[in-house]
Amino acid sequence: SRRLDANHLSRLPAGSLRGVAGLRHLWLDDNALTEVPVGPLNELPALQALTLALNRIAHIPNGAFRNLSGLVVLHLHNNQIQSLGDRCFNGLHNLETLDLNYNQLSQFPKAIKDLPNLRELAFHSNRIEMIPEHAFRSNPLLKTIHFYDNPIRVVGKTAFQNLAELQTLLLRGAAEVDFLPILNGTTNLESLTLTGTNISSLPQDFCKQMHKLQVLDLSNNHIQTLHSLQGCLALEEISLQNNELKAIGEDTFQYLAFLKSLDLSENKIQEVHPHAFLTLRGLSKLDLSSNGLSWVPTEGLEGLVHLKLGGNPALIHLNPTQHFPHLRTLEVPFAYQCCAYGYCETPVSGQNQWLSDGEDIQKRDVQTYLGQPDIYDLDSDEFFLELEDDLKLQHTVHCTPTPGAFKPCEYLLGSWMVRLGVWFIFLLAISTNAVVALATFCSCQRLTSLRLLLGLLSLANLLTGVYSGAMAGLDAATYGRFAEFGARWETGVGCRALGFTAVFASESSIFLLAAAALERALSVRRLSRHGKAPSMLPAWVMAGIVLALAVAMAALPLFHVGNYGQSPLCLPLPNGDSSSLAYLATLVLLNSLAFLSMAITYTWLYCSLEKEDPLDPSEGAMVKHVAWLIFIDCVLYCPVAFFSFAGLLRLVLVEPEVPRTLLLLLSPLPACLNPLLYLLFTPLARQDLSHLWKRLVWRHYRGPEDAGCDSSSTVSAEATQLSSDPLVQEVWKPLWSPGVRLVPCQQSRRGGGRGSCDSAYTDEEGSVISDASSEQLQACTRACFYQPRG
């Protein structure tokens, strides 16, 4: 042999090989040859193997190898061959292997008609568009043909006919081929691969002459119906991946006793006959993933070792431990279905522990037995028989997807710290926000722009409390056995509704807070310039825009932009899909921009306040209150935003328990703090509560019909009666000084016009306390004895 490869040869001079006439192997690959060195090659009549690969040859002329009658192997791959002479292989009567892969051929190599002993032909990855009728008539000894990755549009029906020695036929990417070529006379075929075609069905007599077929790959086609394959008795592997099959009949795979692997993934299968796999006793690998199955037959599948059922969201009820005792690899639609194989929610050495590897089990068991010789008095045979039985019971099952913090087996909320925290948030958020909402919308105080926005904020926070309560209730109802309900919960309407509620509440609360910041800036500016507050119209417009935007953001996962059913928390967590990642990134960015806009707005507001006259105390108090809300909510949102971006960009690796805790405790915490800040530190809140309480007292004494804010009943006598009532005085006692008593207002009516009410307060000595001296008493009295005007 002579190796001349990788020498950058651009030509081979004539006579350069004259002294090696007996040469059998010649390597000329990986050079810079632009043509076949016909002259030097004619001087090597004994040559058996020639490699001209990885050169720059563009054309093979006629008679290029005419004196190489003993040549058996010819490699011409990875050149720039665009054309072949019709008689370029003339004289190669003994050639068995021809490799023309990775060239630029645009026409079928008809020159192979001069190769009667050709057994292996490869011309894949070229530009050939057509394989003519009877293309291989002159090559009856062909065993293998590779011509995939060509833009083949037309294949002659008789192209592969009467190839009695053909064992492997591989055709990929012929997108316009819509039929199966006639294979009459091609009786020894062992492997048939036809992928990426437009074939919609197989002939009913397909297996009539395919008695030796072992591998059938018809993936990535458009097959809608599949007739019985009973005649292909030697089949060991069938791949029908990514077709359009909708059902599997009883006789489709019947009596295929040697079948070991069956791939039916990525179809539209919704129904499988109960006895479809009954006779497949040798089947060890079955792939039914990414279909529409709601039930899987188990008869005949007791020997399965590998089973894939992922991507079947309707397959909720599944218990593989009962029907597949020999499984080693299992893929299921939901992580909860893997809990039956021993997932442990209590970490050991910082990792979730599955059943150990079989070898580790064996070593551990041997050490256990050998370390306690007094317990077992067994000879070696009995010892290993018992050990073998023990290992059979503990064999490893690798099950995916793996349960974890977001796919729990036993407890939805995990630790007791999280559980108690969620209950605390639920109770506090519901109670405080309900009080704020009632005090805002049910008292007789005039509804201002800020009170409207803060009231809507309390309702949004109330919905967050509802979400936390639902999580706490679900955890309590499924305590210790969440795996039994997890799949049904994730795929149910309740989870989607709860997810919508959570996202809507979160987004609307942030946007309403931004609107409140803007309202404070506009209100203060108008008060300083015009001496009066702005009208309610801008507040209603802002509230409408905010709520519409929150509804739009929360509704996107319902239209498959994001997914509420990705976890039992029903939040749109990323699942690797581009749409879910984009949705979550947009959500975090939008919220971050909202907080940034609040910070900018309030910075501008405080800078402008330094140049203006001091604000009214009530206005100043509300400006400070909104500032506190912005500060608290922003501080609590920063960790959520950080871990969200870190998870999306894979910048920080954290345990899943950390983001779960943030989502369950830190994210809804503003729903508790916002109303507490309002109730405890805002004078307006105390006034609202006082008016609401007095209205309830008035309702108790006058009845529901006179409890409205616009009641026009005469109140003079009633005021005297109420002022002397011990219960009323007890209720009102905290609202004024101990020495103050109530004097009922005097009402006058003039000609049926509007009534007037002049109220004053006196101490026990009869001295009058003016209205200006006690604003709180004025507000309380007006609320209780309010008379309509106009």
UniProtKB/TrEMBL annotation:
Its main location: membrane. The keyword Transport does not apply. SMART domains: LRR_SD22, LRR_TYP. InterPro entries: GPCR_Rhodpsn, GPCR_Rhodpsn_7TM, Gphrmn_rcpt_fam, Leu-rich_rpt, Leu-rich_rpt_typical-subtyp, LRR_dom_sf. SUPFAM superfamilies: Family A G protein-coupled receptor-like, L domain-like. It is a multi-pass membrane protein. One of its GO terms (cellular component) is plasma membrane. Keywords: Cell membrane, G-protein coupled receptor, Glycoprotein, Leucine-rich repeat, Membrane, Receptor, Repeat, Signal, Transducer, Transmembrane, Transmembrane helix. It is found in: Cell membrane. It comes from the Eukaryota. Residues 432-678 form the G-protein coupled receptors family 1 profile domain. The keyword Transferase does not apply. This is Leucine-rich repeat containing G protein-coupled receptor 4. It comes from Petromyzon marinus (Sea lamprey).
